[in-house]
## 1
Amino acid sequence: MKNTDTKEYLENYIKLIKKEALRLIKAPVPKATREAYMLYFETGSRLTFEKQYFAVREQLTVFGLMVSLWEDTGADKECAARLLHVIKSVLNENTWVLPAHGSREHIDGKVQSIDLFSAETGGSLSEILYLIKDNPAIRDNFYNEYRNICLTFIKLLRIRIFNIFLEKNPCDWWEGGTTNWTSVCISNVVISGYYAGLIGSDVLGENPRNILSVNEYGEIMERAAASMACYIRSMEAGVCTEGCGYYKYGMEYFLKFHEILSQEKNIYINPRDKLKLIGEFKEPALFLQRIYLGMGNSVNFADSAVKNKMKLGIISYLSYMYDEVELSDDFFNYSNKSILSGEFKYTETLGGEECHRWLGGYSDYMWVKKYGKYLKCQADCKEHMFENNMWYIKRWKDKTGFYIKGGNNNESHNHNDVGSFGYIVRGEEMLCDLGAGEYTRDYFGKNRYEILCNSSEGHNVPIVDGKYQLTGDTARAESFYLKADSLIITYGAAYGLRPECVKRKIIFKGEDGFTICDSYCNVKRITESFITKLVPVINGNTVMLKGDSGGISMDFKGHMGLYVREKIHNDHDGNKVRVYIIKADYINNETAYVIEINIKRL
């Protein structure tokens, strides 16, 4: 599907922006409070403050879009006034750093640092303030107020972003890292510097060097290019081990940095050399289409969600870069409404439901407008093996998919999940990966692996001699390969044993299902364990799982006990989700032992 027509999508996106602006203009400007900030340090809860914080960012994004895209939205004086009000509210915040990334001193303005969200706030305000400078409502009614806001913002940007970044090299752990933090933080430092310079010259009438000297801006760009090269090379085999959500987050900012470099006219920073340093990124560009399972589902290892909305802005830009980037035809067909017609149930809008990120909202409109003609449609590929990262994905025609991983238990946003898999039938999870839980202090602390979704207890892997999997990069799969119609993995090291002591073989039987052959040596007690959100029904040696559109049967032979344990999983949004762990106990009186579990589609 070359030269895709995105006109209807863009029209409906504008309608959505207007609808949200009409809703929010009737509400007061929210405020992130000190009391909610301190709650994190008292209880470990992040959600109370973050809901307030992101409610402010929602208004910043919506009214920022209304006013910056005034030629398409027809934004009036009221929207412009609200946007300036929201911006002043953000400028009055003592810190832009979330409590989970900061300290008690941050909320009193005693300490400043760069985390994901302080960086995003600086970058977002920089771009918004530059884009709205020629808006007639701003120019004719609020120009003095707008200019004063720019003056205040530039001074604050110097304190909260530029000074912090330039005073240390590296600025923080993330500068030379390979996670989404690297891309988001470093890109926003660049975004801030790039647009602050333009604001200085176009709005304040100052030489941009008064904002950042040539040497300072050059240093920012030099360090940013080196960091971005590290970030993108970490995915050179085509996998983001952090998962789909974090891939989209990091890649969006990587592409923004790439776009700025591509349009930068300042010859003193050698933008072409920096683009060469970053190099090609075709394999990472293909990640989303390779892990897509149909009906909005994607492979969700680590802190990711199985339901992932497509970001048309990212896909449009990547399609412009590489002909091989394609959207699954499922996105055009399974809803009976093309996503390009504005079926926003399957696409991200306005920066996402949770964080309302400015760049997400803007790029999902502007990049589609600029690069949407390059969007292409493909039939789903049947399988893909990521050999270096030990991921394998197999798909069938009716939105049924299987995915399994090896790897190690020290990956970014790690779960103890070596050898775990997921199975989706007709778009519905049968055996699942729970993905991300509620982010709390404990979630990223010493108690992380006592939380169900992070522990191997919350994954489709066995309990060996009463032990769950260990944590660390030595807890790993030794081998991971395809042989005929089987996927084979050895991962005894995940349990502190020799690699060959625990071996899993998945034998695929066409579209009918598969057999799990788990082999053990020098192991006495085994509990085969599988997790599901469906209510299991035990009938003899068989467990039945039935969903709305399909189901499976699981046949256990030779067990010493077959039973179900009910658990509560706190999902990423803080909701309590009831899940079920199917367990089958086995006793091994031999040196070597093989357990077969047959899984059939109903």
## 2
Amino acid sequence: MAPVLRSRIDPADEVFTANRDLMLAALAEIDELTARVVGGGGSNDPAKNARSVARHRGRGKMLPRERINGLLDVGSPFLELSPLAGWGTDDPLGAGVVSGIGRVHGRDVMVVANDPTVKGGAQGPSAVAKGLRAMDIARENRLPLVNLTESGGADLPKQAEIFVPGGASFRNLTQLSAAGIPTVTLVFGSSTAGGAYVPGMSDYVVLVKDAARVYLGGPPLVKMAIDEDADEESLGGAAMHARTSGLADYLANDEADALRIGRDIVAHLHFSHPNQNRPLASSAPIYPIEELLGIASADVRHPFEAREVLARILDGSEFEQFKPLYGSTLVTGWGQVGGYPIGVLANNGILFSEESHKGAQFIQLCNRMNVPILFAQNITGFMVGTQYEQGGIIKDGAKLINAVSNSTVAHLTLMMGASYGAGNYGMSGRAYDPRFVFTWPNHRIAVMGPKQLAGVLTIVARQKSEAAGVVFDEAAFAPLRDAFQAQVESQSTALYATGRLWDDGIIDPRDTRTALTMALSAVHNTPVQGTDSFGVFRM
């Protein structure tokens, strides 16, 4: 049994209560945004959204999350991914697509569902990116992919932004199939133009009678292209595809029947999922998970103890620390989450040479042990300055980035605070392809902190003036500096990041164990296999 972490948190402390209050306020904003997405419609006008939903229900149709609930096992958790994609852009909030991981007949599956109440399910740039991310997760974790399709195709006013990247959707479907990862598409309504290739390239296709319409060109386009008058049923109706074209493998009587058939398909797949590391017996942390609300600093400039977080997400709060007295600003060690063994790298401050050595060695050990790694980020970067440059911080930091880059065990990344500069890279940021990235609402991400960036801009401007022999006007430059700082601040928030799919969703800190457990379950659908092949470590 590993040692139990001992907490020193005082829930009555002023800093703790202030952090908790600010975290709850941030969660309230996220909950409000999420409720708008779940409600459907996709616009900022509640009345318009209500009309869209009523029109959809008036056709006897389910909302996307109702379809997902009908597909998944009763009581199955659903790890929804990137629910606020599109935030801060001119795409609909949520992107008009629901994606996530749930269980069908006890098997983890990736589900992607169009929301036809949002622009008729039309696909904009955020929807394309969200769908591609879901396919990446399905491929990396060997999860059967189930599409719940009802879409008018491309959002035509944005065709220039989606035509080229959107083509990867069809390539990915065929590559999933080629890799032996099953693809299933249930069509509930329109699936037109390029969208027709979603069922066309899936292993199994279910069409709903008198509702599904699948064609490359609808009646208006056919009329314009070849001057043929065609009705929708003859051109792309479900019965026609079941009896004549052969596109449909199953003809469902209604939506509930389609979901039943979809469940039956998954049940008979006999799809091999090694899951050789079945979860061990697990126990809850010994400290209240509610306390996570007050541990992380609302202001990421203020440090907090990473072990206090680990004590509330690891099974039994047990943690076997590795090199606890060396490189103390990087916490490393082993524990379990939901019964799954995991290695942990967690930031307790800036990265020095010692931390870089320690982290690289620890990653190598996890690869030898075939154990996934959790990177818990709260990092301002690697240390700078003459002393550290002469001491080799570049080559030492490169060792850590080398180890992260070439590690082959699954990485999971938790953004629990700051993620600045090369620290993001050394702690397996998005560019390093972790299997999952989850974010807390207090998260901030940028090249460096907004104040520091604005300060660097000022120094550069001053040096440029001095080189030209001009007196630097601090007062005149101040508005530009302040505007730049405000811009960086607005582009560093958790909402800005999640709106652009830099993560897989903002989560309530209290849901961290659940999210990580489901992610680890998905990870173990493919063998966790480490490597001993790394790039050259500069000594």
